[in-house]
């Protein structure tokens, strides 16, 4: 299998990280991969906020959990087990990763959330290619609905969509992938 296909298949959401920070050069490579994603009308409607401040990471965790616990229906189709986890002080939604990158999209762009999602997938794959663990996080979104979000200094006209946590993997052996549905293809020849 070629290296790209191997990286795609080896990437797993990582939920246990070492405490050491990843290198600036690694973050630069991850963001460079992001900005080479395709975008509708070549608008490149994204902004990346790299957070490595432990206090702010802790705040994003606690505020997101509190906000979600207070209004569990604000996120569609969340399983009961996850809503219950919000009340567990041991559950850290960022999994104590040392770096969190928030990806924001330009509100005036044609399809910013799709473009940003393509960029995020590139980031996950770039990270895996360097053996860096990553996870795409929707559970940080409640933080974006609070006043605290101003601390992120996201440029005007941009809306934060997702967080992606990065760090060195605590365990080197990748766990097996959640089984993929195979009945998702039809051919028209
Ligand atoms: C939009 C999106 C949001 C996600 N949010 C979370 C999250 O908040 N917490 C989490 O543990 N995993 C989150 N995930 C990771 C998924 O659970 C994971 O990708 C899926 O179970 C498949 O596992 P894999 O990434 O190892 O292939 C998210 C994935 C996506 C695409």
From TrEMBL:
GO MF: oxidoreductase activity, acting on other nitrogenous compounds as donors, with NAD or NADP as acceptor
Keyword terms: NAD
InterPro entries, A to Z: Nitroreductase (IPR029479), Nitroreductase-like (IPR000415), Nitroreductase/BluB (IPR050627)
Domain Nitroreductase: 8-168
GO CC, any one term: cytosol
Gene Ontology annotations of biological process type: 2,4,6-trinitrotoluene catabolic process
Domain of life: Archaea
Protein name: Nitroreductase
Taxonomic source organism: Methanococcus maripaludis (strain C5 / ATCC BAA-1333)
């Amino acid at each position: 299998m070629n290296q790209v296909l191997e990286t795609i298949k080896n990437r797993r959401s990582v939920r246990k990280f070492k405490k050491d920070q990843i290198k600036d050069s690694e973050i630069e490579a991850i963001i460079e991969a992001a900005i080479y994603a395709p975008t509708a009308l070549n608008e490149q409607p994204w902004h990346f906020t790299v957070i490595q401040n432990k206090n702010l990471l802790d705040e994003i965790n606690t505020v997101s959990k509190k906000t979600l616990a207070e209004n569990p229906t604000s996120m569609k189709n969340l399983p009961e087990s996850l809503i219950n986890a919000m009340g567990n002080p041991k559950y850290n939604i960022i999994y104590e990763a040392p770096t969190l990158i928030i990806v924001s999209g330009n509100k005036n762009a044609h399809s910013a959330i799709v473009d940003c999602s393509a960029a995020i997938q590139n980031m996950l794959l770039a990270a895996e290619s360097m053996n860096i663990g990553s996870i795409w996080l929707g559970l940080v979104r409640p933080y974006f609905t609070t006043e605290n979000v101003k601390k992120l200094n996201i440029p005007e006209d941009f809306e934060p969509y997702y967080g992606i946590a990065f760090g060195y993997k605590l365990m080197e052996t990748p766990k097996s992938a959640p089984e993929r549905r195979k009945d998702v293809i039809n051919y028209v020849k």
